[in-house]
Amino acid sequence: MTAAAPPASVDLSALPPYVLALKERIAYLADAQVERVLRAFQIGAQAHAGQERKSGEPYITHPVAVAGILAELGLDAETIIAAILHDTLEDTELGREDIAAEFGEVVAELVDGVTKLDKMRFGSRQEADAESFRKMLLAMARDIRVILIKLADRLHNMRTLGAKDSDSRRRIARETLEIFAPIAQRLGMNKFKAELQDLGFRALYPDRYRVISERIRAAIGNRREAMGKIEAALSARLSADHLQSHVVGRIKSPWSIYSKMRGEHKSFAQLMDVYGFRVVVDSAMSCYMALGVVHALYKPVDKRFKDFIAIPKANGYQSLHTVLLGPFGAPIEVQIRTAEMESVAESGVAAHWAYKTESGPANSAQARAREWLSSLADSSARTVSSAEFIENVKIDLFPDEVYLFTPRGHILSLPRNATALDFAYAVHTDVGDHAVAARVDKKLLPLRTRLESGQLVEIITAPSAVPNPAWLEVVVTGKARTAIRQYLKHLQHEDAVDFGHRMLDRALDAQGSSLDAIPAAVLDRFLEASKLKRLEELLSDIALGNRMPDMVASQLLASRGKRGGKVPQAPPQAPEKIRITGAERGVLSFANCCHPLPGDDIIGYLSSGKGIVVHREECPNVVELRKSPERCVAIEWDRDVQGDYRAELRIEVINRPGVLATVAAAIAAADSNIENVEYVERDAAAATLLFAMEVKNRKHLADVIRRVRRTGVVSGAYRYPL
C-alpha cells in the first residue's frame, strides 16, 4: 500500500466527532502540524478499514483515543501521529517505508518501536512477550516517546477492558500491575501509574476492589469534617506567615491500601487512620518555610521527615514529606512542593514536554529516565535471554529506594534491600567484579550487608577478586545480576573448553589415538557437519553433556579412517581418570544427594546442559547412573584442591538447654562455617540435629566430628548421608 500525497487541507466536515475532539485537544500545535495529524488519521483509517474492536467499534477509534491521551500531556506532533499509526505495521498492510515517506523517519522509528513481534516465530507465548517487551524497551532507550505511546496505549486498553473475555482480562491486568504501572512510576508519571493500578486492580480482583472502595467511601464520609478543620488550620497558618499556598486533602487509592495491607500486614483501619494533605507553594525556598510553619502548628513525628527536594527520587520526584501529630489523635501526612514539582510528580518525563535531541531534556525526570534507559540498553547487550532481561527489568522497578553517598559526595539511588555489592556494581562493573568488602560509614562490613538511606559507602577492591555464583543470591539490582551472570558464563565457557579437551583426549586415548593425530581437514568436516563454527564449541558441548566424548571420538576416528585408509588398532587401555581441583565450578556441580568432599572416591555423570555432576562412589544413586555408561566420567581429586565444600552432619544430642549452642561452638572452633541447622527429631530426653556446613575436605570433616563428640552432650555424630 502506497500513501497518497497530502492534500492542501483536510475536509473537516468528513471527520467523525472523535477526530474533531482530538483536533480541539491539539490546538497548541501549529496549523501545519494539525494538518499532518489529521492526515495521519486519514491514512490510519484507510489502513484499518473493515477492522473492529471487540466492542464492535471501528478499530481506528482506539489509536485516535491513544493520541488524545498523549495530547492531554501536550506532546509534539510526531508523537501524536505515531500514536494514530501505532498498530498499522502489525495489523495492516501499511509498511514502514510508507510511513517514513509520508511522515518522516522519526515517526516511522516511533511506530516500529511500539510494534509487537507477533509475526515472528517463538517457542512460547512467554518468550514472544519477553522479546516484544525487550524490543520496546530498547526502542524506548533510543527515543523516550516510544514508552509514552505504549503507556497511553495500555491505559486506553485498560479503560476498555470490559469487552475482553475473563482470562484475557486477568492476563492483561496482571501484566499492567507487574510491568506497565511500575514503569510509569519509574518515569515519574504518577497520574498514569495511579489509573493503571486502579484499573488493573479492578480487573484482576473485582471483589476485593469493590469491598475496599466501599470502605474508603464510608471512611471519607465519616471524617470529612475533621479533614476540613485540619485543611483550614493549615491554610490559615500558612497565610498568616505570608506564604502563598494551596492546600488539598489526599485520599489513598484502593490499590495502595490493598498493597500495604498485604505487604505490611496492616488492617484497613490502621491504614485509613491517617490524614493526608498536599501543600503547593511558589518556590523551593517557600517549601522549607512552609515546613517550619506546619511543624509549629502540629508537632512532627520523630524520624518521619524526608527531603526529596535536596535528594530527588530516581524518577525525578521532588517534595518534602513530614508526618505530624494531629488534633484528633491520628497522624497527618503532609507533602510540600512547588507547582513545578507537582507537574513533574504527576506527569514525570512528559511534564513541560520539550523534546530536544541535542540541547538535553527539559526536566529532571527526563534526565533520570534517560540514565535508566541507557542502563537498560547496556543490560540488554549483555543478556542473551529475553526472559532473563525482563526479569532484571522487573527487579529494577522497585517503588522504594535507598539513597547512598559515594566518598566523593555523589548520590546513588538503589532499590530497597540493596547490598554493598549492588552499590559496587552501580559505581562501575569493574568495581563490582573486583569487590572484596565495603566501608559503610567508615565501618568495615561484608559485601552482603544491606544498606540504608543516608549511608556513606566505599568499596574495597582487589585485582585477584572475581565474581562467584553465590553473589547472585546477594544482589537485588538487574545491573549487578546481569554483570555477574555474564562473568560466570564467560568463566563457564573457558572451563568447559578446557574440560571438554581433557575428556575428548581421554576418549581418543582409550581408542589408541589423540586429538593431535586427527587431521585438520577431518576435524573441519566434522565441525561443519555438526553445524559448529569452532573446535571450542565442540569441546564446550562435550563438557556440558550435550555430546558424548566416546561417540565424538569414534566419529572422528571413523572419518579419519575413510579418508586415510585403515586406522591402526591400538590395544584397548584402561581410561585415565580426569583430575579435578574443584575450581572448575563452571562445568562441575556437586550432588546434593551425597555431598562429595576432597578425599572421597568420586565419579562424574554427564547431565545434558549442566555439565558434570560429581557423586561419591558409594552414593546409592550411582547404581542407577551406571546404567548409562556413556554418560559416566572417570574422575578423581587432584592433590591440590582449593575451596569450601558442603557437608552435612547428623548429630544425636541430649535434649537440654544450651546444647545447640555447645555443638555450634564446637563446629565453629574447627574453622567450619555453619550454613543451616534443623531439628529432625525431638522429644523430652533426646533430639536429632542436622547441620549443613562448609569444610575443606574429608580430613577437615573428621576433625569437626571429633570436636563435636568431645563436647559431652552428644551421643552420636556421623556424616549424612552415610
TrEMBL record:
Enzyme Commission identifier(s): 3.1.7.2
Pfam families tied to this protein: ACT_4, HD_4, RelA_AH_RIS, RelA_SpoT, TGS
One annotated GO molecular function: GTP diphosphokinase activity
Enzyme superclass (EC): hydrolase
Catalytic reaction annotation: guanosine 3',5'-bis(diphosphate) + H2O = GDP + diphosphate + H(+)
Domain ACT: 648-722
Coiled coil: none
The entry's keywords: Hydrolase, Transferase
Record domain HD: where: 59-158
Gene3D superfamilies: 3.10.20.30, 3.30.70.260, Beta Polymerase, domain 2, Hypothetical protein af1432
Domain TGS residues, every copy: 400-461
Domain of life: Bacteria
Function comment: In eubacteria ppGpp (guanosine 3'-diphosphate 5'-diphosphate) is a mediator of the stringent response that coordinates a variety of cellular activities in response to changes in nutritional abundance.
Entry protein name: guanosine-3',5'-bis(diphosphate) 3'-diphosphatase
Organism: Rhodanobacter umsongensis
